[in-house]
């Protein structure tokens, strides 16, 4: 007799079954509920982190001399809302960044460059790249920049560069080699700006450099 036959014959057998806390096999199991809530929590966490990042970016741009009206126009927010976010960080915070050159070697900056390179590879190969799913997960906040995840992304990018070396511009390999050397020998100095801000800026600059943007 199968488990389903037993449930139909003795529905009271579900009472106290940890797999079905509701006692109803037609409802979700605990395992399904765990996966469902974990997915919701990931989206909520990613949204909270993105709001924090946007707030830091607005304060950074204001500190660089951009007017709140200009920031409001670019972000699609009202000027009072921008003012509230900028004021929340206080004067001189976040710390102003030095000139934004691609050749910086702190770990968050290099991670951002790797992320930007991976996105360019994914788009160049019409999302058939080995790194495409990983890049999508990063963009959705389902992957984080842990040591293990960064190592995994490095392996995927290197595989794509080897498998598609005839299709990809030589600048992609040059960028990867520089990023890889930096990650293997990280600098110990703490660069200004939070890790998420530095990753985001490096990501954007790297993409523009590889894609020919300004």
Short summary of the structure?
By secondary structure, this protein is mainly α. The chain is built from 9 helices and no strands. The termini are far apart.
Nearest-integer average pLDDT: 85
Instruction: Give the count of helical stretches.
Output: 9
| Main sheet specs | none
Distance between the termini: 69 Å
Indicate the proportion of strand residues.
Answer: under 5%
From the spread of the alpha carbons, the general shape counts as globular
Number of strand elements: 0
Q: Which radius of gyration do the C-alpha atoms yield? A: 23 Å
The helix-and-strand class reads: mainly alpha
Uncertain segments of ≥5 residues (pLDDT<50)?
11-15
List SSEs in N-to-C order: HHHHHHHHH
Considering DSSP H and I runs of 4 or more, what fraction of the residues is helical? Answer: 55-70%
Your description of this structure?
There is one protein chain. With 214 residues, the chain is mainly alpha-helical. Helices cover 63% and strands 0% of the residues. It has nine helices and no strands. α3 (68-75) crosses α4, α5 (107-124) packs antiparallel against α8 and α7 runs antiparallel to α8 (170-184). The radius of gyration is 23 Å and the shape is globular. Mean pLDDT is 85; it is low at 11-15.
Features:
single chain; 214 residues; mainly alpha; 0% strand; globular
What is the secondary structure topology, with strand pairs?
Blueprint: H1 3-9, H2 30-63, H3 68-75, H4 79-89, H5 107-124, H6 132-139, H7 147-163, H8 170-184, H9 195-211
Helix pairs in contact: 2-4, 3-4, 5-7, 5-8, 5-9, 7-8
């Amino acid at each position: 007799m199968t488990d389903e036959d037993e449930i139909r014959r003795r529905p009271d057998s579900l009472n106290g079954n940890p797999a079905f806390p509701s006692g109803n096999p037609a409802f979700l199991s605990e395992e399904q509920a765990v996966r469902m809530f974990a997915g919701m929590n990931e989206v909520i966490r990613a949204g909270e982190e993105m709001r924090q990042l946007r707030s830091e970016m607005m304060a950074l741009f204001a500190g660089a001399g951009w007017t709140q009206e200009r920031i409001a126009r670019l972000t699609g927010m009202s000027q009072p809302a921008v003012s509230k976010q900028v004021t929340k960080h206080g004067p001189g915070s976040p710390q102003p960044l030095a000139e934004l050159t691609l050749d910086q070697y702190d770990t968050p900056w290099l991670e951002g460059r790797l992320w930007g390179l991976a996105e360019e590879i994914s788009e160049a190969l019409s999302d058939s790249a080995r790194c495409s799913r990983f890049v999508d997960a990063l963009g959705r906040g389902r992957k984080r920049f842990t040591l293990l995840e960064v190592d995994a992304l490095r392996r995927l990018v290197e595989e794509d560069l080897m498998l598609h070396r005839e299709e990809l511009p030589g600048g992609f390999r040059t960028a990867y080699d520089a990023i890889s050397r930096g990650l293997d020998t990280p600098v110990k100095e703490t660069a200004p700006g939070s890790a998420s801000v530095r990753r985001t800026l490096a990501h954007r600059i790297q993409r523009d450099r590889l894609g020919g943007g300004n």
